[in-house]
Write a structure and sequence with these properties.
The complex is a heterotrimer. By secondary structure, chain A is mostly helical. Chain A has a single domain, classed as ABC transporter involved in vitamin B12 uptake, BtuC, CATH 1.10.3470. Chain A is about 65% helix and about 5% strand. Chain A has 14 helices and 2 strands; from the N terminus they run αααααααββααααααα. Chain A has helices at about 10-15, 25-45, 55-75, 85-100, 110-130, 135-155, 160, 200-220, 225-235, 235-240, 245-270, 280-295, 300-330, 345-360, and strands spanning about 175-180, 185-190. In chain A, strands 1-2 form a two-stranded antiparallel ribbon. In chain A, helix 8 (about 200-220) crosses helix 9 (about 225-235). The longest helix of chain A is centred in the last third of the chain and has 29 residues, at about 300-330. Chain A is globular, with a radius of gyration of 21 Å. In chain B, helix 11 (about 340-355) crosses helix 12. The N and C termini of chain B lie far apart (about 75 Å). The longest helix of chain C has about 35 residues, at about 5-35. Chain C has a domain at about 30-245. Chain C is mainly alpha-helical. In chain C, about 70% of the residues lie in helices and about 5% in strands. Chain C is globular, with a radius of gyration of 20 Å. Chain C contains 11 helices and 4 strands, in the order ααααβββααααβααα. Classes of the chains: A mainly alpha, B alpha/beta, C mainly alpha. Chains in contact: A-B, A-C, B-C. At the A-B interface, helix 2, helix 3, helix 8 and helix 13 of A face helix 1, strand 3, helix 3 and helix 4 of B.
Chain lengths: ~375, ~400, ~325
């Protein structure tokens, strides 16, 4: 990242705080437990003949990356961001335009995926530079408005984005995997992951997610990470210590945008399409925010737990329950109360309200930090 | 130093897990290689069940269920299992690309599934078509009308080939396409005396596509197109747009779009804004929900609806039989699309019956080979693009809050 | 019969002002609550939506579906006040249950709670649409937009229906919103409660030291703000004839933009902002393309926040640290 803010004195000034932002007592232990579960899931799933846990896990991993990006902005730096989906959309469309045959670039998966990072960062910079001086709740509204504008622009500039048609197909990665021949035998070779190759996607996305987690953890401990947190805790004091608040916020904003765009690139590739612009609406931003809040603002482990809980509830539990109820014919199709899918809003809403009321630090809280939820807006 | 060790540990663990999963995947797929032993084959439909398309899709699903019951849910000793999947989400109240993609993925992963009935929305088809094509799973749509899904030269240069990555045709539909419906709509508008038409659309694949065909055809017929624009389907009202339509002196308004995208509100605002012009909509609005959303007084005697087939009341032979049975079973008049759900399921079941092996590829070939099918919609075949050879269309109007058949439409 | 350019312009002004007045009425609810607890009451737009569902339920119970003389007029008055009472009470209750325990919490906590509440409201709206009543289409498709019977005719009040005209509905909008705004202004400026509200807005601690029951004043503000949303919901429903459980988001965004545009916390600002947003929308629909209208509204929002964060009529308030 090129967004490191030069900050000669910040380092030492923040040293006494060092213990405070460390997170849970043994953050790596929690991460390893999560990793172990993530590795057990496909084994259990495949061994038991297909529980269907692998396909929805793709969304969990990708949303975990979006939420990690949002966590940099909202969790580390304490800026409420309600338009992260816009940056995801920018990543999705950038990736599609860079790889689709009808555009001049025709890049393959990896170069296009890594290009989404600077593209996202630049988009974040463009939005952030005029607005980051605003007070907290106004900034939230600006990000929300930006989210809506991006959607409209993607929908209306049809010559570039193909409007609601979406762009497809897009590039998919080459990985070493089994290739089935006509006669049913399989060989192991470099091959393009097909849209149906859930297990290959699972492993690839898990490895990428591990990379992102390591990256974010290192950022958190770096000078810039500590600057973010000092701005969150007390903007005035950190300014007095020589940390430029707007530039520090800028770097957080750009980092978050870059990660969201990166996740967008992955999303497009798993979907093999951009979908349509309305896919990246306010609901998606709120889902990411819910992940961060429920998991624990500012805690990387918390975000991972939040992604599993929120996206898992959304894509696995409710979906299963709906299907079960439908198959068992427990209620008539017409009954709106009968489908758990119809309860999604209620559950999300209640989760937010109860978390804020009783556990504002989230399921995995940052230990011993000063303010309860960071932003003082 | 410690960090390096940790990173190494994590990476090696992950690689270990990958290796384990690899080997397991290899083993299990080999074990599952013969799904036929279970003697069950499965058909799924992927239609928007949540939201305002619910009424139309319920009637289609009823049609599908009736077709399956007719064969006793059994063909050649195989039990036919049917699952009704939803490709809409409550957040959108409409079809959702993510859900459609998931449905396609689920269908591919389930080896018992040999047929996929769907989609309802043409945009949704664009998501699932390439996926199902790659997996060689046959797809029969009861409702997609966007012509570029199958017909070369009607969309982008790479359409429809980009929906067929395997090169084979796996997508078939029992409804005629928009390039016919839009053109016939335009010639009907001409007959109705339209001279200046304002064309609106909902910006979706279906709505915009049909609106563009209408615009082009209207131009060819000498009707002046005074405006062409996409609406905001979430707007609270279209008063300002209606004023604009009036200011352009339009004597006819066409809306390419669906009930779900606020067709009803446009009808309301046109009448309330004092516009006397006729209002024409395509079959995306040919459902009772359109009349309910718009309010009957806003439609009576001033609204024209085109439909890529005949309404239930005009069906003959097998179709009339279907309508009669439907009414007996469900106690209500079927919506226009019910018969297409029924026809899609019947043509698929017929192909399963003809296929020698009950696997995906044989069934796909059998569907493609459908010729002179004695269906509820008449006798028809699938052409080389997977389209029906059936070309009968109809025009309706609204009277006393009910659709009323006016005429069979024909044209180029 | 073609309209001249000037006629078109004036018709769009009428359209814009009518839509703008409805937006302004909703915006007042935002601005009042913000002025006193500095909370962007996210759920306000969805509360407005629930008000419309409540009104439609009453319409179903009364069985009045046509614009017919006194019966309809009476129904409209009943709808306006009962929906206002419903929304006001509901808003008050939500404040009591959800926001009051968080008075001392960081503002972000409060805002996220409000977002959560708005989701709960949307879900209630979805289920409400599934009520097995005739007016809800028998409850067969809960999510579908609902037709609100045209209790107010759309005929011209002044002018020629074929050309420029002000319809009875436009008359209704102004006839309801203008008196409400005057009443609100009077309440805030010239009553004891209003004085207490202004005192709490300026400094809650000092206000409570002066013997003002801060919680009660805040509760009253939520009640009044909610009631305004309730009035707005009935006016909106009668004007547009369609309600849907998803309409709160768009209406809320427009109204919030209006409140920020005028200067959040300022009552005249909210009205001015609402009218400007309404006019912007109709002008953009006419002279640009409908598809860009939304973008323009949000772009204005961002530009206002960047260049004049206090809004057109707001005071330049320094952020309280």
């Amino acid at each position: 990242m090129s967004s490191e803010a030069p900050n000669p004195t910040g380092d030492r000034a923040l040293a006494p705080e060092a213990g405070a932002w460390r997170g849970t007592p043994r953050p790596w232990l929690a991460d390893l437990i999560l990793l172990a579960i993530a590795m057990l899931v496909p084994i259990v799933d495949v061994a038991s003949g297909g529980l269907g846990l692998i396909a929805p896990a793709k969304s969990i991993f990708i949303f975990a990356i979006v939420a990690l990006g949002l966590n940099v902005v909202t969790g580390f730096t304490g800026l409420l961001h309600l338009g992260i989906a816009a940056f995801m959309a920018i990543g999705v469309y950038a990736f599609a335009i860079l790889t689709n045959e009808s555009y001049p670039f025709r890049l393959s998966f990896w170069p296009a995926l890594f290009l989404t990072l600077p593209i996202g960062a630049i988009a974040g910079f463009v939005l952030g530079s005029p607005t980051l001086g605003l007070r907290g709740d106004y900034l939230a509204i600006v990000t929300l408005g930006f989210g809506e504008i991006v959607q409209d622009v993607l929908r209306n500039v049809e010559t570039v984005t193909q409007g609601t048609q979406g762009i497809n197909p897009v590039a998919k990665p080459f990985v070493p995997w089994f290739v089935a021949a006509e006669d049913g035998t399989r060989t192991f070779a470099w091959t393009r992951i097909s849209v149906a190759g859930d297990l290959a996607w699972y492993i690839l996305l898990l490895l990428i997610l591990i990379g992102v987690v390591v990256f974010v953890r290192n950022l958190e401990r770096s000078r810039i990470g500590r600057a973010w947190m000092s701005v969150r805790e007390d903007e005035l004091a950190s300014k007095a210590m020589g940390i430029p608040p707007v530039r520090t916020k800028m770097s957080a904003f750009a980092t978050g945008a870059a990660l969201a765009a990166f996740a967008g690139g992955l999303w497009a590739s798993t979907l093999d399409s951009t979908g349509e612009p309305a896919n990246y609406d306010f609901q998606v931003s709120i889902l990411a925010l819910c992940i961060v809040i429920v998991g624990g603002m500012g805690s990387v482990t918390g975000v991972l737990v939040g992604a599993v809980v929120m996206v898992g509830a959304n894509d696995i539990v409710l979906d299963r329950l709906t299907q079960f109820i439908q198959q068992q014919k427990l209620v008539s199709d017409a009954n709106v109360l009968g489908s758990p899918n119809n309860w999604k809003y209620m559950l999300f809403g209640l989760a937010l309200v109860f978390m804020m009321r009783f556990k504002p630090d989230g399921l995995v809280s940052r230990k011993g930090s000063g303010s309860r939820t960071g932003g003082r807006a | 130093m410690r960090r390096t060790v940790r990173t190494l540990a994590v990476t090696s663990l992950a690689i270990l897990a990958s290796a384990l999963a690899y080997s397991l995947d290899f083993g299990s797929t080999a074990a599952n290689a013969e799904p036929q032993e279970t003697k069950v084959i499965r058909i799924v439909s992927s239609l928007p069940r949540t939201g305002s398309a619910n009424a139309q899709t319920t009637t289609m699903v009823n049609g599908i269920k009736m077709a399956i019951e007719e064969v006793g849910a059994k063909i050649d000793g195989y039990a036919i299992d049917y699952q009704d999947w939803d490709d809409a989400s409550p957040q959108r109240g409409n079809w959702d690309p993510q859900v459609e993609a998931q449905n396609a993925g689920k269908a591919i992963a389930d080896p018992l599934i040999v047929g996929y009935i769907g989609t309802f929305n043409s945009g949704a088809a664009k998501i699932s078509m390439p996926k199902l094509n790659e997996a060689g799973l046959v797809m029969v749509s009861p409702a997609n009308t966007a012509s570029e899904l199958t017909k070369p030269g009607t969309g982008d240069a790479d359409e429809p080939m980009k929906y067929r990555p395997s090169g084979k045709i796996n997508y078939f539909r029992v409804v005629p396409t928009d390039d016919l419906q839009g053109a016939m709509g335009a010639s009907w508008a001409k007959e109705l005396g339209a001279t200046k038409v304002y064309v609106l659309h909902d910006k979706e694949v279906y709505g915009k596509g049909i609106a563009e065909v209408f615009k082009t055809s209207a131009g060819k017929l000498g009707i002046e197109v005074v405006g062409f624009e996409g609406i905001d389907p979430k707007a609270s009202n279209y008063r300002s747009l209606v004023t604009k339509i009036k200011s352009k002196g339009a004597d006819f308004v066409y809306f390419g779009g669906t009930t779900q995208n606020n067709a009803g509100q446009i009808a309301k605002d046109l009448r309330n804004g004092g516009v006397k012009a006729g209002f024409m909509v395509p079959d995306g609005c040919f459902e009772q929900a359109f009349i309910e959303a718009a309010g009957a007084p806003n439609l009576n005697g001033r609204t024209y609806i085109t439909f890529g087939g005949l309404p239930a009341s005009e069906l003959k032979g097998k179709g009339a039989e279907f309508v009669k049975k439907y009414k007996e079973k469900y106690g209500i008049e079927p919506e226009a699309y019910a018969v297409y759900g029924y026809e899609a399921a019947r043509v698929l079941l017929d192909a399963i019956d003809r296929a020698e092996k009950k696997d995906r590829e044989s069934i796909r070939q059998a569907v493609a080979a459908t010729k002179n099918f004695e269906g509820a919609l008449g006798t028809w075949s699938f052409d080389e693009n997977g389209d029906t050879t059936n070309r009968i269309m109809s025009g309706q109007t609204v009277e006393d809050g009910k659709f009323k058949f006016v005429k069979v439409l024909s044209g180029s | 019969m073609e309209m001249t350019a000037a006629e078109v312009f004036f018709q769009q002004v009428v359209n814009g002002l009518s839509n703008g007045m409805i937006i302004a009425l909703i915006a007042l609810g935002y601005t009042m609550v913000y002025g006193i607890v500095e909370l962007i009451n996210w759920a306000h737009g969805d509360l407005f939506m629930l008000g419309a569902f409540f009104a439609l339920t009453l319409v179903g119970i009364f069985g009045v579906t046509e614009a017919s003389g006194m019966g309809a007029t009476g129904t409209i008055v009943v709808l306006l006040f009962s929906s206002a009472l419903f929304c006001g009470t509901f808003n008050y209750a939500v404040d009591w249950v959800a926001y009051r325990p968080l008075r001392k919490a960081p503002k972000l906590t409060l805002l996220v709670t409000a977002i959560g509440i708005s989701f709960i409201f949307v879900n209630i709206g979805l289920f409400w649409g599934g009520l097995p009543m005739e007016v809800f289409g028998g409850g067969n498709s809960a999510a579908a937009p609902k037709d609100f019977p045209p209790l107010v005719p759309a005929q011209a009040l002044f002018g020629n229906e074929e050309k420029v005209h002000v319809s009875v509905r436009d008359g209704l909008v102004f006839g309801v919103t203008v008196p409400l705004m005057i009443a609100l202004w009077w309440l805030v400026r010239h009553t004891k409660l209003g004085t207490a509200m202004r005192a709490v807005a300026q400094n809650p601690t000092a206000a409570s030291l002066m013997g003002i029951n801060v919680d009660r004043v805040i509760g009253a503000t939520f009640f009044i703000g909610g009631a305004l949303g309730g009035f707005a919901s009935v006016v909106y429903s009668l004007y547009n004839n369609t309600i849907s459980f998803q309409m709160g988001f768009r209406a809320g965004m427009d109204a919030f933009t209006a409140a920020v545009l005028g200067g959040i916390g300022s009552l005249p600002g909210a009205v001015l902002g609402g009218l400007l947003i309404g006019l912007t929308r109709s002008m953009s629909d006419q002279y640009l393309e409908t598809q860009w209208t939304n973008t323009i509204v949000f772009a204005i929002l961002i530009l206002i926040l960047v260049f004049r964060p206090s809004g057109l009529l707001g005071l330049r308030a320094k952020e309280k640290v």
